[in-house]
């Protein structure tokens, strides 16, 4: 394979660093960007830069937002007595697609994983406990993934929250073991929410 000129090689390397993008896809995308009209490339670059500069975490639930508090937290029609705890912001998008949940959320930004050096202090657990002191919450639904780390995190949270006197439930396993919320279909997620169990 012939050596790439430096600008193309740099573009290829940056694209290859993205998750789910292999060498061949990165090469195709790099050539596609080069073939795009200059104005479209500028718009793409501006969108990337703008998203990175303007998006941050909601001060209440730690979802992604471009304002202090996210749209879901600002929605007064939602059930403020229920908080669904998820691993990542993309899990909220998956839950919202199910149309089966109308409460609020709390994003942990990860799961417990001692092998990777991720303990409770690296997650947004302290912030969740603070919310429970400040807000009237009657139920916490734990919607972490059904893999080993997700289950360990759910168990840890349940043990931590039970003494607080709030109902703690876990979404039912309508989700396949090892599956991610992000890729689950709407019906499966809706059934998982309906059949959640108390922990």
Walk me through the structure:
The protein is α/β, with parallel strands linked by helices and 199 residues long. The protein has two domains: 6-54, RecR Domain 1 (Helicase, Ruva Protein, domain 3, Orthogonal Bundle), CATH 1.10.8.420; 64-198, Dna Topoisomerase Vi A Subunit, Chain: A, domain 2. It is 44% helix and 14% strand. It contains eight helices and seven strands; from the N terminus they run H-H-H-E-E-H-E-H-E-H-E-H-E-H-E. The protein has a five-stranded mixed beta sheet with strand order 4-3-5-6-7. It has a two-stranded antiparallel ribbon with strand order 1-2. The longest helix has 17 residues, at 38-54. The radius of gyration is 20 Å and the shape is elongated. The model has no long low-confidence stretch (mean pLDDT 91).
How is the secondary structure organized here?
Elements: H1 6-16, H2 23-35, H3 38-54, E1 56-57, E2 64-65, H4 71-74, E3 79-86, H5 89-98, E4 103-107, H6 125-134, E5 139-142, H7 148-161, E6 167-170, H8 186-194, E7 197-198
Parallel strand pairs: 3-4, 3-5, 5-6
Antiparallel strand pairs: 1-2, 6-7
Helix pairs in contact: 1-2, 5-8
Please sum up the structure shown.
With 199 residues, the chain is an alpha/beta fold.
Query: Mind telling me the CATH class of the largest domain?
Result: Alpha Beta
In CATH, the architecture of the largest domain is 3-Layer(aba) Sandwich
Secondary-structure-derived class: alpha/beta
For the largest sheet, list the strands in their spatial order. 4-3-5-6-7
How much of the sequence lies in strands comes to 5-15%
Distance between the termini: 57 Å
Mean residue pLDDT: 91
Portion of residues within helices: 40-55%
Number of domains: 2
List how many beta strands DSSP finds: 7
Shape: elongated
């Amino acid at each position: 394979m012939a050596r790439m000129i430096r600008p193309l090689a740099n573009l290829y390397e940056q694209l290859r660093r993205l998750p789910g993008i292999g060498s061949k896809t990165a090469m195709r995308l790099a050539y596609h960007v080069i073939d795009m009209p200059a104005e479209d490339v500028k718009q793409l670059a501006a969108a990337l830069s703008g998203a990175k500069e303007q998006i941050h975490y909601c001060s209440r639930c730690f979802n992604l937002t471009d304002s202090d508090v996210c749209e879901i937290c600002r929605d007064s029609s939602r059930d403020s007595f229920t908080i669904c705890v998820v691993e990542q912001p993309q899990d909220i998008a998956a839950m919202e697609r199910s149309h089966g949940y109308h409460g609020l959320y709390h994003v942990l930004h990860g799961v417990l994983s001692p092998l990777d050096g991720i303990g409770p202090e690296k997650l947004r657990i302290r912030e969740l406990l603070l919310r429970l002191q400040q807000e009237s919450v009657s139920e916490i639904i734990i919607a972490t993934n059904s893999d080993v780390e997700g289950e360990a995190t759910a168990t840890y949270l349940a043990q931590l929250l039970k003494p607080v006197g709030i109902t703690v439930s876990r979404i039912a396993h309508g989700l396949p073991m090892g599956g991610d919320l992000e890729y689950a279909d709407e019906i499966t997620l809706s059934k998982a929410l309906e059949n959640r169990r108390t922990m």
